Amino acid sequence: MAGGENAEYYSVDNASINNIFQRITVNLGLQERNEVAVISNFQTTGVFFQKTVQPVISLKVQYYAVLFNLDVSGSMAGQKWKSVCESV
Predict the structure, then answer these.
(1) Phi and psi (nearest 5°) for 17?
(2) pLDDT in tens, 45-72
(3) pTM for the whole thing?
């Protein structure tokens, strides 16, 4: 928790803000599918297997929210309160 003397203001440009509040997660993998077919008649039965492997990629954008809980008690009066307000 930041407040009073330990509150600071950091100036960032728009690119930096995107780096802080937005993350893109990339998942790579393989999807494996197995299929079985059985063909049968009175004389014989045949079993056929087919295995397919397909690459899979998924992108997920995660956004973050930042919440501030500000101390407005009497001990935060004057320069302490001004520093917190400027920081936020």
Answers:
(1) -65, -45
(2) 999 999 999 999 998 887 766 777 788 8
(3) 0.36
